[in-house]
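Course assignment 3, question 2. Fill in each field.
Student: A.L.
Task: Predict the tertiary structure for the chain below.
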Amino acid sequence: MNKYTREISIEIIVGLFMFTVLIALGIFTIVLSSENLLKKSYQYEFVFSEIGGLREGDNVFVRGMNVGRVKQTDLQDENVRVYASLDVPITLRRGYSIEIVSSSMLGGKYLKIDEGPEDAPPLGDNVTILGSLPVDVIEELGKAVTGLQSMINAVSQGQGTLGKLLKDDTMYNNMVAVSDDLKTITGKVKNGEGTLGKLLVSDDGQMYDDTKAFMANLHTISQNLADGKGTLGKLMSGSTNDTAYADLQATLANVRSITASINEGDGTLGKLVRDGKLYDEATSLVEDVRAAVDDLREASPITSFGSVLFGAF
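Answer field:
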């Protein structure tokens, strides 16, 4: 009897232990899955042409905060429908975006929701929410590496400017020739050859003295102009007491008066410029003179023949 009672006690203890383990596993499952059975959730459906490896249980982010999880993905016709459960309601507006973003370079995805501009009108009811085509970071990185490899191959084959610089000896030979020319020029300058060489190396100082004298003369001339000395200086300084300046003013005034008279049609030249009748008469006179010259040219053979004929008698 004691043995039977002991076996029953052991079975009850084992049963209670297994029941406790099952309860603990249920609690841990709920905690690890971040599911709150007592909290209200909001269901949303998004349509993608491709989800790029998004799986059930992946996080959903709105404004940088984790607000839910992907509950289910369903392949239908040519699209993929993604069902998400969110802890908070969201209001999608015109200009929204639903993106699938890589969590890291090692893998993993999450759903990123941008509700749209704040001043945009909200979406209506029964509107299909379309998601953007996901960008595969690994694929893009592979394309970039492929492009870089193609560039390196082209350079190694001597294609393009950089490739020619690395593979073609012409540029090197040109640089060597330029270096030799520069070396020759600097050697001549160092030896005092040419104007620059004489300026830098000449020991007699003649070039320096000539340059110094020229600069002194130039300074004197500019100073005289500034002081109003000489005709040009007085003209530049605007001295009204100077005869040349006064004569120049009078000349300019006369020229201005003459041009004004011509413009108004005064005098013979003014009438020629302004009066069309004189122009017509002058043109007619020129035409008459030209006709008379043509008549004389045509009568010249007859006149010559008459002179010869009557000269014989």
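Instructor remarks: Strands lie at 42-48, 59-62, 65-76, 79-86, 97-102, 109-114. Residues 140-167 form one domain.
Grade: pending
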